[in-house]
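Appendix B.2, paired examples.
Example (i):
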Amino acid sequence: MKHFFFFALLALFGTAQINTALAQSPPDARADSQSDFEFVATVNGTAITQGLLNLNIRAMTNQGQKDSPELRQAVKEELINKELIAQEATKQGLGKEIDFADQVSQLKQNLLLQAFIEDHFKKDPITDAKLREEYERQRKLMGEGSNNFQYRLSQIVVANETDALDLVRRLQKGELFGKLAQDYSTDAATKAQGGALGWVLPGQVIPAVASAMGSLQKGGITNQPIQTTGGWVIIKMDDKRNFKVPSLEEAKPQIRQAIVQQYLAEVLKSLRANARIVQ
């Protein structure tokens, strides 16, 4: 089933640790230099390179820390400690329990994904005008008023109405929503979390769901399944709270991330349409 969330693709790339700072990286942020291959330390003969130190420093400064000699020394000491532990783990034969090929493959995919994003947004930067345009679009989806209600939902999705009605009856008899979601929901993105969707606004879900959740009390469950393009859905309203639409300045990090995700969604749609995928 298609996720109700407006930013559904965020979950898809969570493991890649995509940082919106990528879209703001200076042109030489990823440039290699000869100094990257210089050693900053050796541990029992194994080198820790300047490039590895720089990589960790960039990650920390992207998170808001200030580059300084003290930070560099602290990061260097951490890299030394990690290498010592890695060497000891290798001596104990623990490396045999790790599938290095798959780990390296995933790391390669993540690094290439980051490089792909960086390359695009160097050529087509996210300007203030683009941020404002996307902000206005999302503000309309949230609702024109400055205040709104936000709902924390859970869902169970099944393929047909008969199964959905059977689950509604079981819920009415006292069976746990989360357990039934884990056992029967076809939505892979939420079933492991007991169907939890998280917080959404009415404008971020399909009209039928928006209508249903607005009439539910906290803890309430829809008595009639809702038909969607992805199946039949049972909704539980876990909580409700007031929501004030943030200002543009407050929302800029999320808006920037949304623009990145929208670009990835468009690229993936095209790539999947032209790819030969066998499952």
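Example (ii):
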Amino acid sequence: MKSLLEVDSIEKSYDYKIILSNVYLKCETGDIIGVLGKNGTGKSTLLKIIYGILTAEHKFVRIDNKVRLKAYKYKNEISYLPQDNFIPRNFKVSKAISLFIDKKNIKGFYEDSFIQQIYKQKVNQLSGGELRYLEIKLILFCESKFVLLDEPYNGVSPIMIDSINEMILKSSKNKGVILTDHNYKNVLKVANQLYLIKDCSTKKLKNKQELIQLGYLKEGML
């Protein structure tokens, strides 16, 4: 049976300026939801509100018919990749893995040639792209039913992006994934549903051509 994350009636403003209004989206396990929008439209803000680390004037977040005002308290239900790095810089990679990953999943986590290359290093020895890859994999290996990914492709090389997309697609077999990134081409590669934030609200798209019709992309950018 699939799990369901419902987000409805999100209202958020800063200094009396409306950022998000009447925002709605729905994600089931098996879905990869791409949330797109121009700079400053509130994509990251929306993910933080869903996760419960940012307040909103109004919000409705429900996971499997249970209202979650502070979803972050339910680690088995939802996990979140922020834009900023979250692993302490003085940690060894192996320590971060042991703290984040359940013991029964450790073996599978290490079945990755890149992880085998870096696990003895300290986090502060990793490049920005290497660290991002590690963080994404840690989040995707969490036990949660849903994953929120904020700018997962930022600072990552094209080769690593391909591996990240493979991880996202594999994880979506038993998780629901919501991601947002300025690298829209990679979002389009993995997402099976698209939402566009425009005029403070979300619009579920029927196809990617609507990104041009609604002014997010120009002709020839798809």
